[in-house]
Write a structure and sequence with these properties.
CATH topology of the largest domain: Diaminopimelate Epimerase, Chain A, domain 1
Largest sheet: 17 strands, mixed
Number of domains: 2
Helix content: 10-25%
Number of strands: 19
Distance between the termini: 5 Å
Structural class: alpha+beta
CATH class of the largest domain: Alpha Beta
Shape: globular
Length: about 260
């Protein structure tokens, strides 16, 4: 069965997007992992499947490159909003999102962050604003769910942290029953520098939900004011948020190429 696909990226965080709104695709872990493989498949950080929705313009499903289906992806949401054009609504496992797209960028309403320990979720009750835990000098992280679960550590120098080594251990710690995305952030000239270890994908050039989580954590701790620039290895996102409100994320999205593959 041959199907067309689009390859897109947001700040280097790249996606294979399959449109199944007219003809269903039976996506599963093995197929998602195969398509995501950069040597034997198309290659991407996340595989995106668009399906019909009864409550939105489209339903977006997301598989990480390891084959696991996840709830949310901010950069992918901007790409899908750009594909749809104009104002749109997008149903995800993490909630209903709204997008407003230009020609090569989009602003997305990512919903309200959740802070309760069982909403993230954690294995037991703990102060999520300054968790009394640490790993090799990384201490007192901020935990938040922004459609998917994130842990944010604030450090002096994001490059000094061996995130590629520590990320897998933190991601799979028993404290996080659904695993966790790991963010290393530093405040520089009123902006946030950020590196992210994504659950199921590893180090990526950018993570939209990670940028949202870092901004919420920094604003909550009064380290920055809203809106704030989040500077990732792949580029810059702008995040606006105030307590009690939804997060708004703005940044670029680009179509790389289209193609056809035999599923």
């Amino acid at each position: 069965m041959k199907r067309q696909f689009r390859k897109m990226h947001g700040l280097g965080n790249d996606f294979v997007i399959l449109d199944a709104r007219q003809d269903a695709i039976g996506m599963n872990e093995d197929l998602a992992r195969s398509l995501s493989d950069r040597r034997t498949g198309i290659g991407c950080d996340q595989l995106i499947l668009l399906e019909p929705s009864a409550i939105a313009d489209v339903r977006m499903r997301i598989w990480n490159s390891d084959g696991g289906e996840v709830e949310a992806c901010g950069n992918a949401t901007r790409c899908v909003a750009t594909l749809l054009g104009g104002d749109s609504t997008i149903e995800t496992k993490g909630g209903l999102l709204a997008g407003s797209a230009g020609t090569d960028s989009a602003t997305v309403d990512m919903g309200r962050p959740r802070f309760a320990w069982d909403e993230i979720p954690l294995a037991y009750a703990v102060d999520t604003g300054a968790m009394p835990i640490g790993w090799e000098g990384l201490a007192n992280p901020f935990a938040v769910n922004v459609g998917n679960p994130h842990l944010v550590f604030f450090v002096e120098d994001v490059e000094a942290i061996e995130l590629e080594r520590l990320g897998p251990d933190i991601e799979r710690d028993p404290l996080f029953p659904e695993r966790i995305n790991v963010n290393i952030a530093a405040i520089v000239d009123g902006a946030i520098r950020l590196r992210v270890w994504e659950r199921g994908a590893g180090l990526t050039l950018a993570c939209g939900t990670g940028a949202c989580a870092a901004a919420v954590a920094a604003i909550s701790r009064k380290l920055v004011s809203s809106p704030v620039e989040v500077r990732l290895p792949g580029g810059v996102l702008k995040i606006a948020w105030a307590p009690g409100e939804a997060i708004r994320m703005s940044g670029p999205a680009a179509l790389v190429f289209t193609g056809e593959i035999d599923l």
